[in-house]
Specification:
The complex is a heterodimer of chains A (551) and B (238). Chain A is α+β, with helices and mostly antiparallel strands. Chain A has 4 domains: 3-161, no CATH class; 178-298, Beta-Lactamase (2-Layer Sandwich); 306-383; 391-541, Histidine kinase-like ATPase, C-terminal domain (Heat Shock Protein 90, 2-Layer Sandwich). Helices cover 60% and strands 12% of the residues of chain A. Chain A is built from 17 helices and 11 strands. In chain A, the strands form 3 sheets. In chain A, strands 6-8-9-11-10 form a 5-stranded mixed β-sheet, with helices on one face. Chain A has a 4-stranded antiparallel β-sheet with strand order 1-4-3-2, sandwiched between helices. A two-stranded antiparallel ribbon of chain A has the order 5-7. In chain A, helix 2 packs across helix 6, helix 4 (81-96) runs antiparallel to helix 5 and helix 6 (128-177) runs antiparallel to helix 7 (181-196). Chain A is elongated. With 238 residues, chain B is an alpha/beta fold. Chain B has 2 domains: 6-125, Response regulator (Rossmann fold, 3-Layer(aba) Sandwich), CATH 3.40.50.2300; 133-228, Orthogonal Bundle (Arc Repressor Mutant, subunit A). In chain B, 39% of the residues lie in helices and 22% in strands. Chain B has 8 helices and 12 strands. In chain B, the strands form 3 sheets. Chain B has a 5-stranded parallel β-sheet, sandwiched between helices. In chain B, helix 4 links the parallel strand 4 and strand 5 (102-105). The longest helix of chain B is centred in the middle third of the chain and has 16 residues, at 110-125. Chain B is globular. The chains are: A alpha+beta (551), B alpha/beta (238). At the A-B interface, helix 10, helix 12, strand 5, helix 13 and strand 6 of A face helix 1, helix 6 and helix 8 of B.
Chain lengths: 551, 238
């Protein structure tokens, strides 16, 4: 019977009914689940294990069904025969797939003809009705076999999809937690070997374009050389290398975006016959393309940078959380305190020059202290992550405290504050939001001319409280705007170009994010000033006690 | 009011810090200074010299400052002002709950510490039959008659608003924690919520502050509590 047509008509039916299911079944057929594991077993052994054994078992099942039917021949009516023969077909389909099921169906039809349709013990059929019955049985057996095997594949594909999503989620979580570049390589490697189920390696491009050898060290030298040369040459993004020692073929593919190459994935595709290699190469190419898309999407470049930054911060933070913070702040406290005593002495107060000098000491030491504070904040952010201590707060208090805290930096500017009358409370970590406001105020002062106005308006809008800090300074150009999106992600690089500790905006945005808020930077363009807006969710106030204060 | 000269005990292991504290306290008059460079010496001095005020640094070489605080508090009510480098809110609240009268975060100016010290001493030496009127800038709060004057005009407050002002006035110049305020104002009420307090403060500010958007009398100590200034705070807006 024309099996191909049968299958394709079935497929179109499926297509019509369940597009997704068919698509995933096709994906399964295309080999995510049947890429053989790398093994040194001879081809014959593999053939027996993967094809011959299921076929033989299917035949055996049909035999068992036949014997059963022969033994109980007298007990059951003859029309039960086709139903009993369906059992081995369905079993074969659900356990081993389409082909064993087809074999079982054909064998069952033949056996039924031979044993149970007159004349018995002959393949001949006298009754045309019997011939039609048998053909119908074959048709039903093939269709149900195909359906059952399809169902099996579908379940498997779904399970696999689920696993893939799980792996991907796990992967992105691991990426975010990587402290060192070698952690990162480890995460990518384990993701890749999870996806390919074979020997893989990921080589990361260092920021200086030099090649980092594989840390595990079990990648052949030739492959490492190939990866290194791929990193140097831009535009070369795929190649194949044969390892002379083992005869294994390695597939190399660059993971890159428009700007840079993040790294090279190497996959061992083994050393089988050319046809098998070609087939496998084809499949792995497709998966590699998908994997490199995933890596691009997860922004490996950013992750590498972040991991480096985290490592640096970790070292810094260890130092700080040991004694450095105390060691740095104690002398600062002694200087600041001594200067304040000097300032209050009549001898100094009445002597203009001395007074100014002492004031200078105070100012500078306060600046030094705020710098140390910034470093401490930065290490706090990256070392343990921030755990905000949320508490209901009045936004007015936070804005006022931020302005008071930065009064020295804002001394040359005219700070105007405006609060809406209907400001709700916000549920935040006041200290973090205050620090973020302070950082933005400091930036506003830094990038606008002395004497100009910095206006701070606080208003409520659709369940949110928005604090906007506007200056009339340098503003932001179109190109800078484009970079801005990246800035918050790789704040470090951006901050390196502005004077100061360079951590301000990064700290501000991290602190605000930790409070479920966001910072938005807007500017009309160069020289037109900048407005930084902090948006925070308003606290939900229970109405029932609102009146209770007015008793 | 406080005695003519108060004995202040400085417990800090940094000689440079002790030096400027001594200079500051002596310069501002009314203080005799005693120094201790570690917890053991500090505890001995606190026992035998009966200081009127203790300035306690939290980072001492031989013992944690919080332990020293606990030990002193176990037998004495002497005002204690804590010095600390960590500006952590939970730590501050813990210290205040453990009995510290106030805290100052390093680095600080001497004027700030003297102001806190004087507020703590005033509260410590206040005798019950003394004038029960607390003055805070344009406000004067009569704690016995429960009347409040603002610029010499009597103002009307709700019961809870008065209660809040009363508690702050008995600690004028010193910080009072959220928990303490909630406890005092909503005593007996099962549900304690800081939102109550925030809104009560906002309402009270509308009445007593010259500019409620920029409070200069009823000051928020972020994450810790509130402080009623004894005079209008200078607002530095650049």
């Amino acid at each position: 019977m024309p099996l191909g047509d049968e299958r394709s008509s079935l497929q179109s039916q499926f297509l019509a009914v369940r597009k997704f299911a068919t698509a995933s079944a096709t994906a399964a057929e295309n080999g995510i689940d049947d890429i053989p594991l790398p093994s040194n077993k001879p081809a014959l052994q593999r053939f027996i294990l993967e094809s011959a054994l299921p076929m033989a078992t299917s035949l055996l099942l049909v035999g068992v069904a036949t014997i059963g039917l022969l033994l109980t021949d007298r007990l059951f009516p003859a029309n039960l025969v086709p139903i009993v023969y369906l059992i081995p077909v369905i079993i074969a389909a659900t356990r081993w797939g389409t082909w064993p099921a087809v074999v079982a169906a054909i064998t069952a039809t033949t056996a039924a003809d031979f044993f149970f349709f007159p004349p018995f013990y002959s393949f001949r059929l006298d009754d045309p009705q019997a011939a039609i019955d048998l053909l119908l049985f074959l048709l039903v057996a093939l269709v149900s076999g195909d359906l059952a095997s399809r169902l099996r594949r579908e379940t498997e594909t779904l399970r696999q999809r689920e696993q893939e999503f799980h792996d991907l989620h796990e992967f992105s979580r691991r990426l975010a937690a990587c402290f060192t570049v070698s952690d990162l390589i480890g995460a990518i490697q384990s993701y890749l070997s999870g996806a390919f189920g074979r020997h893989t390696a990921f080589f990361i491009t260092a920021s200086d374009k030099t090649f980092r050898p594989d840390p595990a060290g079990d990648i052949p030298a030739g492959v490492q050389d190939g990866a290194a040369s791929m990193m140097r040459k831009a535009g070369l993004d795929a190649s194949t290398i044969r390892d002379e020692a083992t005869g294994n073929l390695w597939l190399l593919r660059a993971v890159s975006s428009e700007e840079s190459t993040y790294g090279v994935i190497a996959v061992n595709i083994g050393s089988d016959s050319q046809a098998l290699i070609d087939q496998r190469t084809h499949r792995i190419e497709a998966m590699l393309a998908e994997a490199s898309l995933t890596l691009q999407r997860l922004n490996i470049g950013g992750a590498v940078e972040q991991a480096g930054l985290r490592l640096k911060d970790q070292l810094l933070s260890d130092a700080f959380h040991g004694n450095l913070s105390h060691e740095l702040r104690s002398p600062v406290a002694a200087i600041r305190g001594s200067a304040s005593v000097l300032q209050s002495m009549p001898e100094i107060r009445n002597e203009d020059q001395a007074h100014l000098l002492v004031e200078g000491i105070t100012d500078e030491v306060e600046r030094l202290d705020s710098f140390i504070g910034n470093l401490l904040n930065a290490t706090r952010v990256s070392a343990s992550g921030i755990r905000p201590h949320l508490e209901c707060a009045d936004p007015r208090d936070i804005v006022n405290a931020a302005i008071r805290q930065r009064s020295r930096q804002l001394a040359a500017h005219d700070v105007k504050t405006e609060f809406a009358d209907d400001l709700p409370m916000i549920n935040v970590d006041s200290a973090l939001v205050e620090e973020a406001c302070g950082q933005l105020l400091e930036n506003a002062a830094k990038y606008s001319p002395p004497g100009s106005t910095i206006s701070v308006t606080t208003r409520a809008e659709r369940g949110q409280v928005i604090v906007s800090i506007s200056d009339s300074g340098a503003g932001i150009t179109a190109e800078e705007r484009q970079q801005l999106g990246r800035r918050s992600f790789r704040g470090e690089r951006y901050q390196a170009t502005v004077p100061g500790s360079g951590l301000g905006f990064w700290i501000a945005s991290t602190f605000i994010k930790a409070n479920d808020g966001s910072i938005d930077i807007a500017s009309e363009g160069e020289g037109c000033g900048t407005t930084a807006s902090i948006t925070l969710p308003a606290a939900v106030i229970e109405d029932e006690w609102l009146g209770s204060n007015d008793e | 009011m406080s005695k003519p000269t108060n004995l202040v005990l400085l417990i800090d292991d940094e000689p440079k810090i002790r030096r400027f504290l001594r200079a500051g306290f002596e310069l501002h008059g009314g203080f005799t200074v005693l120094e201790a460079e570690d917890a053991a010496e500090g505890l001995r001095a606190a026992t035998f010299n009966a200081p009127d005020l203790i300035i306690l640094d939290l980072a001492l070489p031989d013992r944690r400052g919080t332990e020293v605080l606990d030990l002193i508090r176990s037998w004495s009510n002497v005002p204690i002002i804590v010095l600390s480098v960590e500006a952590n809110e939970e730590e501050k609240v813990r210290l205040l709950e453990a009995g510290a009268d106030d805290y100052v975060v390093k680095p600080f100016g001497i004027a700030e510490l003297i102001a806190r010290s004087q507020a703590a001493l005033r509260r410590y030496f206040k005798s019950p039959n003394e004038n029960p009127v607390v003055v805070a800038g344009p406000l004067s709060i009569d704690l016995v008659n429960r009347t409040v004057l603002l610029n010499n005009n009597q103002i009307k407050l709700t019961r809870k608003q008065y209660r809040l002002l009363h508690v702050l006035a008995t600690h004028v110049g010193l910080v009072v924690t959220h928990d303490q305020l909630l406890e005092e104002i909503w005593s007996g009420s099962v549900r304690k919520n800081i939102q109550y307090l925030r809104i009560l403060v906002r309402d009270l500010r509308q009445i007593i502050e010259p500019d409620p958007n920029h409070p200069r009398l009823l000051i928020t100590e972020s994450g810790v509590g509130y402080r009623l200034q004894s005079r209008l705070e200078d607002v530095t807006l650049g």
